[in-house]
Amino acid sequence: MEGSASEFRDWAHLFPVEIVQLISNKVKSITDYVRFRAVCSPWRSASLPKPSHLPPQLPWLMIPYMPWCSDSDDGIRLFYDLFDSKMRKLHLPETIGLMCSASYRGWLLLVASEGTEVFLLNPLTRARVNLPSFTTPVRRLKGDLSAPGYDASWVFKRYVGNFVITRVTFSADLSDPKCLIMVFVESCWGLFCCRVGDPCWTMVNIRPSAPTGDAAFYNGCFYLLSKGAMHITEFDKPENTLVCLLKNKLPDSNLFLLEGKSGLHVFTIHDTEVEDDEETGQNDEHHASADNTTEGTVMGIKQTFELYQLYHDSNKKYSEQPPPGKFPIHLHSDLKKITDTSNITIFCGEKHHFLAVCSDDWDSLDGDCMYIEHKEKPSPDKDMGGEYYNNYYSISFSKIGGTKYQTVALEIAGEPPIWPPAPAMWFQPSYV
């Protein structure tokens, strides 16, 4: 026995530190990198806690949880890993009693009831960035910033506070003091921004009764999208707000904004005439989740997706000044439908939870494809005598603009009994 024990390898000193560092730089999967650092303390010390060499990762789907059951909540959150086709469990006690409202660049936005607490959380590193609460009056981007603040807490009191914010984005790395963070409240077209350390939010726009739409912060400008028009406000020059009438007539459908390497894109969703029993099986060559891919029908999906690129000349001079109190109108904004989607992959979810990635960033993506999170039709729970119904989250795959679907993961988790219903959320894991 003693002889066999002496033959065990000492992994901590198997390689020199320099070799361990070289090996860690060859790891491309974020889950493999986590396993690599967990081997032993010397390996963990030899590898970077925030590696910059990892390519953009295939997103995980965060499964909703019940935020208001803190007495029985153990803080375990479920994430479906699309690349490995596995459910990941992360212990995130910071989320107990708070709702995860949005995600961006590997960060989750956590919001307490009525906006009393707002912060960003990286689930992998457990890093936290505190943001102003909405109990403090907000400033106005346009006008005298030293004037008394505007009370925006009614937004969280009138609308259910834990689901108010539908979008978060920021302009740079959060460690950059110039990084600007934007949140969007769809129900009132509320657009707010701040920098890390600010005592309060700054209000860009708000309308107590407004059309639904989407928002983004891109290249120093805030974009507010509604059907037929785009409001564009420069952060440094808020008086330069434009109302851009779109020349294209978009489908009467849901509109969303996606940031891409080549500019800002408009993503539309509208119903189709697809039958539930239509055959699938177009995309046999895609690699992600290949072991868990099942061909067949996808019940309940009857939607078509289109992608457009926004063209806007922000330097255009106006021949006439607009009337007092009116925004200048730019009639030359246009949307061009993107026909070459060979380098684009989109991850679709509910309530503005969409991600777009370049397929060149990840070897497992072929481009021109979408992963669609959806809830299966309710079915009776036999254990409850057929009286209780469950919705189950599933993921399907399709070509962009296509109407045929292929099941990637079926019934990966059940929907908890939350009202209003919480969205499952695409989250792109990152250490940075």
Task: Provide a descriptive summary of the structure in words.
- Pfam families: Beta-prop_KIB1-4.
- There is one protein chain.
- This protein is mainly beta.
- It folds into two domains: 54 residues, no CATH class; 373 residues, no CATH class.
- 8% of the residues lie in helices and 35% in strands.
- It has a five-stranded mixed beta sheet with strand order 8-12-11-10-9, with no helix packed on it. A five-stranded mixed beta sheet has the order 13-14-15-16-20, with no helix packed on it. A five-stranded mixed beta sheet has the order 23-22-24-27-28, with no helix packed on it.
- The chain is globular.
- The relative contact order is 0.14.
Summed up:
This protein has 432 residues and is mainly β. The protein is built from 5 helices and 29 strands.
Widest sheet, order of strands = 8-12-11-10-9
Mean pLDDT: 75
How would you sum up the global shape? globular
Tally of DSSP helical segments = 5
Question: Main sheet, how many strands, which sense, barrel?
Answer: 5 strands, mixed
Would you identify the regions where 5 or more consecutive residues have pLDDT less than 50? 274-299, 382-388
Structural class: mainly beta
The residue fraction in helices comes out at under 10%
* Number of β-strand runs: 29
Organism: Rhynchospora pubera
Domain KIB1-4 beta-propeller: 79-384
Pfam families: Beta-prop_KIB1-4
InterPro entries: F-box_BR-signaling, KIB1-4_b-propeller
